[in-house]
Amino acid sequence: MGERHIGDDAAVLAPFVGQAVISTDVAVLGVHLDSEYFPLEDLGFKAVAAAVSDLAAMGARPRGCVVAVTAPEGTDLEELHRGMADASIVTNCPIVGGDLAQGRDVTVAVTVFGECPGRGALYRSGAQPGDELLVTGALGRSAAGLRRRRAGASLSDELVVAHRRPWPRLVEGMAARGAGAHAMMDLSDGLGLDLHRFADASGVGFVLSDVPVADGATMDEAISGGEDYELLIAADDAARLRLVFQDRGLRAPLKIGVVVKDVTQRTLRGEEFERRGWQHQL
Amino acid sequence: MGERHIGDDAAVLAPFVGQAVISTDVAVLGVHLDSEYFPLEDLGFKAVAAAVSDLAAMGARPRGCVVAVTAPEGTDLEELHRGMADASIVTNCPIVGGDLAQGRDVTVAVTVFGECPGRGALYRSGAQPGDELLVTGALGRSAAGLRRRRAGASLSDELVVAHRRPWPRLVEGMAARGAGAHAMMDLSDGLGLDLHRFADASGVGFVLSDVPVADGATMDEAISGGEDYELLIAADDAARLRLVFQDRGLRAPLKIGVVVKDVTQRTLRGEEFERRGWQHQL
Questions:
Q1: How far apart are CA B130 and CA A98, in angstroms?
Q2: What ipTM was assigned to the predicted interfaces of this complex?
Q3: Rg of chain A over all Cα atoms, to the nearest angstrom
Q4: From the CA of A72, how many Å to the nearest CA of chain B?
């Protein structure tokens, strides 16, 4: 009853503890990554990191992932794989299988699976009136990095790295689940779109007091930039959440507002908070 | 601790029983399906069926799958989805999540996950000298169907259907695992390639007495046609295997030969059995 990953029809993993959590994401070169400004390995890293972030959003612990790649002949598959392997290592989510086919585009479909020992997974739909709304970090870094790169910044610029190497908030997600948070999601398409989805799923409104803008980013990038992969959390006992984060050596989550009962009330500092966000485009 | 599939960052499934088995397969229109002769829904069906067949090959029970699709604008995604849904229904493997992105090719990456209650999964590497080698059905139907379709046969021709709608041998795989078979794999690339891989993984040779050719297929199609998705099984107690198949109302597995110790001995009716098989081409 061991584990096997290589050379068989399928990978075999030791039994999962608790619920199994599964998600799939596909990234396309030229759509999800601007190949003029970024190396191919970034597509591999971002594809794996984006998928793993979906586990973080549920409070799950990664168990592994599989990758299905299409690419035209002549593609540097080793470079692509290097990016995937890097993300796999930093997220502790081993690549246990894969498939490869020829196609005109470079596409990377990553499927991640994780487990939720103890309490069940956190959904978007659990937010309740009176809950505090928090995010795990300041927003807009990825969009600012993309802007800076296009304006000539080097690949090692801090914000450019934030765009190239998003860091899934796995530890934060598990901490929030353990601390009894009510609802959670990852901010992949920007707060301006994702917070509305979150409120829609929970059937609630929100009153935002603040949007934390990262150093070097604009308010617009913070709201509609996307790809920050910070977690959005709703918790009734925010003090406990902060304590658990502190105990685990995590940066304190940032309060952005509160959940309200009126599903139509959606404001930032008293003004309507419009639904707007970032969509991938060719 | 229920299950949820829709609208969250990830799907949540009730705990798996025993080992978790995971596999991913990507299918590309024009590579894995000839769009001149087959409707788009067949790509969806074949992509899901091929992935589920990897679970069958391990003796696993399906728990679900996720699909990541890329397609150019204007693609009939409903037709594609209809094929995936059909395969999901007949294999009892629910589609619990997905992702969609724009790309030049129509590609379908399917990741399946299953469980192995009781005994662990069956690998390719367990075949032992003296084992009987069996297949779950006559071979060459898929390749014959492709040939017939290109020669003008209708989409409802029996062999054409075998090409369009491969049927993963899930019940057979679970029966073989339960009956204590030593090793198993699915014949996706043809016996002429897959049997060598099987023998390589087990470090053994084989002596074939027969290759069962399906009605309407040629010996060449049976050996190197591919996409039959019948299971190849090595078992020391083939009588028990036959009994279990009979008890479950399954067609009797067909003996094709025996496993031998000498890894270099690989024959069909006394002649060398060459390594040859089917590879997808654009």
A1: 33
A2: 0.88
A3: 19
A4: 11
What is the distance, to the nearest Å, from the Cα of residue A163 to the centroid of all Cα atoms in its chain? Answer: 12
What pLDDT shows up at residue B42?
Answer: 97
Residue B5 has a pLDDT of: 63
- Smallest CA–CA separation between B114 and chain A, in Å? 9
The rounded percent of chain B whose pLDDT value lies above 70 is: 95
B21 touches chain A (CB under 8 A): yes
In which order are the strands placed within the sheet that holds A95-102? A95-102, A61-71, A107-116, A19-28, B11-13
**A 190-219 residues with CB < 8 A to B:** 201
Domains and CATH numbers, chain A: 19-116 (3.30.1330.10), 124-272 (3.90.650.10)
**Residue among B215, B196, B216 nearest B206 (CA):** B196
Cβ of A22 and B120 within 8 Å?
A: no
Give the helix ranges, DSSP H, for chain B. 40-58, 77-90, 141-150, 158-164, 170-178, 191-202, 219-224, 238-247
Residue labelled with tokens 């997905």: B98
Kindly list the averaged pLDDT for each block of 10 residues, start to end, along chain A of length 282: 67 92 95 92 97 97 96 96 97 95 96 92 96 98 97 97 96 96 96 96 97 98 95 96 96 97 97 78 38
In three-state secondary structure terms, B128 is coil
Distance in angstroms (rounded) separating the CA atoms of residues B14 and B21: 15
Write down the pLDDT at residue B9: 79
Tokens at residue A88, please? 């796999």
Q: Are A256 and A6 within 8 A, CB to CB? A: no
